[in-house]
Amino acid sequence: MALTTVDREPGRFRNASPGPQLFILCIIAMTLMVLDHRNEYLTGVRKTLSVLLYPVELLVSAPANLRRSVNETFMSRSELLAENQRLKAEALARSARLQKLTALQAENARLRALLDSTSRVAEDLLIAEIVAIDLNPFRNMIVINKGSHDGIFVGQPLIDADEVVGQITRDRVFSAEAMLVTDVDHALPVEIARNRLRTIAVGTGELDRLSLPYLPRNADVSEGDLLVTSGLGGKFPSGYPVGVVRTVQSTTGQPFLEVAAQPAAALNRIREVLLIKPREAAVPAAPAVPAAAGDEQP
Amino acid sequence: MARAVRIWPAVVALLVAVALEVAPLPAVLQPLRPPLPAMVLVYWTMMWPERFGLLTAFVVGLSLDILHGQLLGENAFALCVVTYMTLRFHLQIRIFPLWQLTMTVFALLTLNAFLQVLVEGVAGLGTLGLRQWPRVISGTLVWPVLMGMLDRVRVQNESSRGSY
Fold first, then answer.
1. What is the pLDDT of residue A211?
2. Measured at the alpha carbon of residue A264, what is the angle toward residues A262 and A267, in degrees to the nearest 5?
3. Does the beta-carbon distance from A29 to B61 stay under 8 Å?
4. Chain A partners of B63 at a C-beta cutoff of 8 Å?
5. Residue B79 vs residue B69, higher pLDDT
6. Which listed residue, of A43, A219, A255, B60, carries a Cα 20 to 30 Å from A196's Cα?
7. pTM here?
8. Closest CA to A192 of A152, A157, A164, A219
């Protein structure tokens, strides 16, 4: 080709025929894209490659980790004392509440036995930290520092201290990608805590807004209602708070209400998340609810 | 003639660009993050076409797809096409004055963004669209600075065989 003759080191010119090479690589790329999009064939490939790229992840999150550890090392004594005191007070308050919980749990189990209904499953929690890595800026996704190496699986729900955060979408062995509930592709079966009205909370792409698009105009919903997970769909356990209804708008001529809810805490400020792990002994079969209620990303 | 061109600084530059693509930024600046891997790749393909080319582009693209959690092959495809264009015209664009080169880079970055939007559109993911423009523009604005930096790296490492 013309390029070769002009170059100074013709013998070493590797890209002497970029045309055919481009053709082959494009075919490979397209095959990858189709396989990745249509099926789950490439999970293994993705896992392997992401393990290879793990050093990059470590490198990128190193400055943030360093800052954190420096902060912890050089905290002053008085600050530590103050924090200790605060945590002690918190622990006391919580354990006082827990005393009641044991009794209530026992009572709940008794009542459920009387009603012949299945008992609630207890869950184990695993703490993970959010890695300081920015994913696609147009998606609400995060990376956490636990992966299948630590027993994490795709579809596992994530919560933090006071709300549902999201679910694991992809496993990177030593870390994992998670989709937040506010992502545009995320839908979460919820119910209104006040009257157990079931609906679906859809992400909007904004970190502080969820939308409830499927409520009819006569639905009993008002500002300030608490949304909790309904447990339908089988992925999220029921009863975890999701957010609070902020605006309810009814437009004449529209069949549905426009309801916006706000997640209970700032999703962009969380640092640690809890992973819910159903206990092996009593895993219930996924309830056979209509597919529409499944928490799915298309 | 000595062909003792040290290649590792260029590889390091590429790695740093890939790492910076996922480095944490304040939320306000995130949409403005320049597409550094594509730009560094264009630079090395243009300057050292005998070392960097389509295979490099493919590998860099796949790494980006994994790190971003995007469709596997999306960035690889876009970067391959961009690199092909650079490779095809590298003798012309190498001698462009800076402003013309910057315009060329703008065109190449637009092509890169367009191909990604196209792929996402075909796949029915459609999340990007117009929001790619800030990245393309910030990338174009950053190009002269980046080029100055990479030029120094290049001249230092090929001094043994003279320069272009």
1. 92
2. 85
3. yes
4. 49, 53, 56
5. B79
6. A255
7. 0.77
8. A219
Please check whether residue B12 touches A, CB under 8 A.
Answer: no
Contacts of B139 (CB under 8 A, 6+ apart): B34, B35, B36, B38, B39, B105, B109
**Chain B contacts of A208, Cβ < 8 Å?**
none
User: Which of A173-182, A211-220, B26-35, B88-97 has the least mean pLDDT?
Assistant: B26-35
ipTM of the complex: 0.83
Q: Which among B18, B66, B87 has CB closest to A15?
A: B87
- Amino acid identity for residue A116 in this structure: D
Q: Which residues of B touch A21 (CB under 8 A)?
A: 53-55
CB atoms within 10 A of CB B76: 26
Q: Are residues A60 and A132 in contact, defined by beta-carbon separation less than 8 angstroms?
A: yes
Contact assignment for A31 to B53 by CB distance below 8 Å = no
The pLDDT of B25-29, averaged and rounded, is 79
C-alpha closest to that of A106 among A125, A92, A120, A123: A120
Within 10 Å of residue B89's Cβ, how many Cβ atoms? 14
With a pLDDT cut of 70, the percent of chain B lying above it is: 91
- A279: tokens are 């206990």
Chain B nearest-CA distance from A40, in A, is 12
- Please count the other Cβ atoms lying within 10 Å of the Cβ belonging to residue A163: 20
pLDDT at B159: 64
Q: Name residues whose C-beta falls within 8 Å of residue A253's C-beta, 6 or more positions apart in sequence.
A: none
Q: Which residues contact A191 (CB under 8 A, 6 or more apart)?
A: A197, A198, A199, A227, A228, A229, A230
